[in-house]
Amino acid sequence: MSASTRVFVARLTGLSVFDPLGDQVGRVRDVVVMFSPNRPQPRVIGLVVEVPGRRRVFVPMTRVTSIDAGAVITTGLVNMRRFEQRTNEVLVAAELFDRRVTVTANDAVEAGFGDAIVEDIAIEQTARRDWLGVKVFVRQTSGVSSASRAMSRLTRRRSGKTMLVDIRDVVGLHEQSAEQSAERLLETYDDLKVADLAEVIHDLNPKRRAEVAAALDDERLADVLEELPEDDQVEIIGGLATERAADVLEAMEPDDAADLLADLPPDQAEELLQLMEPDEAAPLRRLLSYDEKTAGGMMTTEPVVLAPEATIAEALAMVRREELAPALATMVYVCRPPLEAPTGRYLGLVHIQRLLREPPHGAVGSIIDKEMEPVPANASLETVTRTLATYNLVSLPVVDDDGRLIGAVTVDDVLDHILPEDWREERHELEVNP
User: Fold this and answer.
1) Where in the numbering of this chain does the CBS domain appear (predicted)?
2) Which helix or strand (DSSP H or E) is residue 150 part of?
3) 3-state SS assignment for residue 407
């Protein structure tokens, strides 16, 4: 073990984990501790490590041989079974950061730190090679001026003085507070992709899940909801203020928002639709009118649509947009105005590869693929799946009875419907090589 045995959890999270041969096993995501009424300091029992395949596994502290500024070294084999938190286990970053506590040390009370929030926790190895939580880095909550809070919001730096106190002088660390911010937790997981953050949120208890949802902005929360199982989606959206829930639904992809609304009680879904902007609610109402396992029920209402006289340069600019899903970026649909679904008459499509081979000043109407037939809104899941597979496509145009484009079905929409309903919960069962 390295000479320095005291480590702060916030600095530990994100460190790479290596085996004795120097091969990277994964990355530290959290620290697991256990509290005991007979021990004033919580015992550190292990690390939560993210390994390839987005799986989070448990590495006991007995397997950790070294922790330094840049890496964690383990010994022996790592059990690749997915980490499942037990009732007596506490995740430091996920559950203790931002917790409101009371500090009883006289010097801390005199300095105004009687009431504080947890910013970080230091763990330390004892002479017996056990790891214990020894110090708490707290931030003052009382006596912070409104000007300091305003500056904090502008600079994104927290207001209030800080102090490092002995963990034995902190009361309430193991007790869930009525209100707990999730700002510090989200800072810890700031580098995660949306799907990985959704995995973390899924593993939290309902109270903490709601706190994290409250801390995310509407766009980020919308992205996370699209990656969560249906039960989690319903729980989170039901826990938000109605006005904010409507805003989040507006930020979601229309097909995902419609699926979520379909899982809500009809009265609640209608209330949310009423609160949404009319032009945002209208596509969702159309989607809800179709059977779930038809092209109309699976499609998104926001594909890339251009008029035939639009240039190839314009088309390439459209598909380069960062917010556009990769599957939708592979195809441009050419229609008569209006160009928002339902459009004017659907004329055909242009593949992105064809766009890349043509001069930028040319018109998309001159390179339309008219052989690829659109599917009607009532086309079955089986029909859509076979068509995508037969023509090696990742998206398909969907038209109404009048030949107007009303949306596009993408391969990820199809996968959501052909995979088992609980595939998001069971994805950790896939084989991952350490």
Assistant:
1) 299-366, 368-426
2) helix 146-155
3) strand
Cβ atoms < 10 Å from Cβ of 245: 23
The C-alpha atoms of residue 140 and residue 30 are separated, in whole angstroms, by 24
Measured between alpha carbons, how far is 7 from 143 in angstroms, rounded to an integer?
30
The CA distance from 55 to 63, in Å, is 19
Integer-rounded Cα Rg, in Å, for the chain is 26
Phi-psi label, residue 321: left if phi above 0, alpha if psi -120 to 50, beta otherwise: beta
Q: Strand 115-125 to strand 305-306: parallel, antiparallel, or no bridges (unpaired)?
A: unpaired
Task: Quote the CA–CA distance of 66 and 77 in Å, as a whole number.
Answer: 16
Q: How far apart are CA 319 and CA 349, in angstroms?
A: 13
Nearest alpha carbon to residue 220 among 242, 189, 241: 189
| Alpha-carbon gap, residue 170 to 7, rounded angstroms | 19
Q: Which two tokens stand for residue 156?
A: 């994104």
Instruction: Single out the residue of 366, 370, 318, 326 nearest to residue 348, CA to CA.
Output: 370
Distance (Å, rounded) from C-alpha 363 to C-alpha 371? 19
pLDDT tens, residue order, the chain (434 aa): 444 578 999 999 999 999 888 889 999 999 999 998 888 899 999 999 999 877 889 999 999 998 876 899 998 777 888 888 888 899 999 999 999 999 999 998 888 888 999 999 999 998 888 999 999 999 998 654 444 444 444 434 566 789 999 999 999 998 877 678 888 888 888 878 898 899 889 988 899 999 999 999 999 999 999 999 999 999 999 999 999 999 999 999 999 999 999 999 999 999 999 999 999 999 999 999 999 899 999 999 999 999 999 999 999 999 999 889 899 999 999 999 999 999 999 999 999 999 999 999 999 999 999 889 999 999 999 999 999 999 999 999 999 999 999 999 999 989 988 887 666 555 444 443 44
| Bridge partners (DSSP) listed for residue 137 | 120, 164
Residue 96 is given by DSSP the state I
Buried b (16+ CB within 10 A) or exposed e, 343-354: bbebbbbbeeeb
- State the Cα–Cα distance between residues 322 and 330, nearest whole angstrom: 13
Give the E-state strand segments of 295-345 in sequence order.
305-306, 331-335
305-306 and 331-335 beta bridge pairing: parallel
pTM over 0.85: no
